[in-house]
Description:
InterPro entries: Porin_alphabac (IPR003684). The chain has 3 helices and 28 strands. It has 517 residues and is mainly beta.
Amino acid sequence: MNMVKSLILGSAAALVAVGGAQAADLPVKAKAIEYVKVCSLYGPGFYYIPGTDTCIKLGGYLRVDVLANTNSDDTGNTSGAGAAGNRFTNGYTWRSREDLNVDTRTATEYGVVRTFFDATFSWTTDSYAGAGNGSTIYSPIGTTQAPNNANAGAVAGGTVGVYYAFIQFAGFTIGKAVSQFSTPWANYPGNSYDGLVGGGGTITGVNQFTYTADFGNGTSLSLSAQDQTQYYQAGVQNLGVLTSPYGASDYAGTIAPDLVAMLRVDQAWGLFQASFAAHDNHAAYFGGSELTGHPDDKWGWAGQLALSIKNIPTGPGDTINVQGVYTNGASRYNIQDLAGSAGANTIFGHTNLPGAYQSIGFGIAPDSVFIPGGQQQLVTTYGMRGAYVHNWSPNWNTSIYGAWAQVNYNSTAKTYICGASGTGVDGTWGAVFGAAGVAGMTSCNPNYSIAQLGTQTQWTPVKNLTFSADFTYTHLDQNYAGTLAFPGTASIGKPAAVYELKNQDTFLLLLRAQRNW
């Protein structure tokens, strides 16, 4: 009997064990897959991030540029090797770039919270620099690497740039974005050329804290504090440091951001904008220590008016964009950071003057200049830029564009630089080059102007794929005359010789292919 009971209990235990094992092997119900859903709140291209109420859009472009007669990517050949006009000036410069941007938006009880990020990854050919002994160095690598860019393609050999990184919420913009002073077309009223004078730019964004009030009917007002250090410091030049006739940059640490106000009216017919900026010029010391003293701060300012007229009678989508600007002690709001050498032009050219080796032209546009023991003398500029864009068809358009800027020094600053005689002998020119070096200078005047004229044609054979050709001519009209015994510069192969002081002309051609996505 006990044996039968044991068999029955053992069989029951076995059945329970088997049943438990089978139950453990049963499939567990999987968590529902959260598929990506289209977000139609903010336009095409947005999707909900799975599991959230935040919408995201990815975008960007791939761009390839080839430029003729310049050593930089479309900012002009107005200094350095690009302006040498010899074997150190590139016949072409090539750049390939990928741009990536991420746009996120979330609806909240206070309105939309937006973040925007834009970065670029670029590889640009550069140029060789002379060592002064018959050898050259490929300039991005320097003297420690072999020529021909041994690290070509590496991250360290190319560039990674953060253009925009900002938050927008309840009317505030906080972070790195285009300056509120700039127009919606920024540096491009109808062109791809980066180097136009005649207005503010900051294509790659500037750190800022901005509040924008929207009054409805396309009218808005923005008030902004923005960082001045990266893009809006043209130079507070200490003429007591005689590294050049224009002294040396002598900035102190940051103390005050630029203050910007912008009023915009945006309608179906076009746009009107008025911008104002206040800019503090904060210099360090006259000499090497605190004991030497310093000049007082001087606030400069800039004002700009802009107008866009859309759908003019010449054709559907045709546009005219124009703007004008005036600055006093805030030169970069006119001659922006990508404008050639941003107001530091040294261009070489030909000459027919007997006894002169070549010609040279100068145009320098700081915010202020001063001498030890003196106060800052603010530099004044004014200018304009504009373009007319005509659409031949949905696939073809052509623009004609131009820009102009004038740079003026006050009488005190001119005396510092050119001396009381006005010949440079008793000014900083004579101190740098010696009386013999400037003996042939018949007129010393640091005022100058830049004029630019160009045309661009674009072909878009399919959506988001565009091929462009952009030709730009630049004229430097400087006010020095006579000759200069220039000491030469080994890095671009210019010898010590007598050069004629003369106006200069340059040009460049951009060919571009771009695929947006």
